[in-house]
Amino acid sequence: MASINKVILIGRLTKDPTEHNTQNGHKAVRFTLAVDRNFKDANGNKQADFISVVAWDKLADLISKYCKKGKEIAIVGRLQTGSYTGQDGQKRYTTDVVAEEVQLLADPKNSSNSKNSNNNDDDFNFDGFEEINTEGLPF
Prior knowledge:
This protein has a single domain, classed as CATH 2.40.50.140. It has a 5-stranded mixed β-barrel with strand order 1-3-4-6-5. With about 140 residues, it is mainly β.
């Protein structure tokens, strides 16, 4: 039986991605994506989940170059769990989304004048990536 492990998220980066290289020479970036929930709390405030994401190699390069704090992106990837022993000797468990595809999403308030802005997203034209306007989407 085939198994399915697919995650699709739309959210904003909580801070700039952090880069590192593995001992094998692979580049990785890590960041946290704030994903709004579809409901508000008892006080009427929006709630969000903060999801750990990692991307590797060429995708890591693209994310480092084009994704900064506050940027809204769409991610397709897979869920991955792991564990390690902390410096205190305690076993820790991790859950990350491993990004396999990323799309930059347009900022609706800047979409009408993006050609005149100082935003470098207009230079983003890699195969498989495109900037889309999220205004009017049901989610």
